[in-house]
Amino acid sequence: MQDSMIGVGSALRKARERRGITLDAASRDTKLHIDQLRALESEDFEALLGRGADDAREFGLAPEEVAKIDDVERTPSARLLADMRQSGESFFQLAQRMSKLHKDYFLGLYPPNERRLAEFAAAAAESHEAQARIEAADKIDFDTYLARYLAD
Predict the structure, then answer these.
(1) Are 91 and 118 members of one domain?
(2) Which of 2, 44, 117, 134 has the smallest count of CB within 10 Å of its CB?
């Protein structure tokens, strides 16, 4: 194999060997299991990925989370992509539809609090009135304001 075609694993192995670092020392220094380093240097990426689920189980990750490591099609992003492909929606359309579903769900949990809605409406009306007063007090047009602002 030509050096220009060298793989990442081979390049790492050659660099380690050039520096005289053993696999044991590299494992200790990188905190990677020696089997992981061997798999990386031999470009056995399947073996590398397989350890993720084993480690997750060892650390007590929930079985449904381990399943996502074993089968990436179970991840939320993969499920959304599959949903988009099936429905033919753009991401924007999917996001709008999902937002409406979530809105409807949360509105269904609790009836609207009429007192809080009235407070929000009053705050919005007060904000609009304040904006109108500020705009009415302006004595210069926007272009003049912008020119003065940029000159400072």
Answers:
(1) no
(2) 2
If asked whether residues 104 and 133 sit together in one domain, one would say: no
Which pair of structure tokens corresponds to residue 60?
């007590």
The tally of domains found in the chain comes to 2
Cα separation, 115 vs 136, in Å, equals: 32
pTM assigned to the model: 0.35
DSSP H helices, 59-113, are 63-70, 76-87, 91-109
Q: Distance (Å, rounded) from C-alpha 46 to C-alpha 43?
A: 9
Asked whether residue 57 falls in the same domain as residue 28, the answer is yes
Kindly indicate the confidence band of residue 2, based on its pLDDT and cuts at 50, 70 and 90: very low
Q: Which domain holds residue 128?
A: 113-151
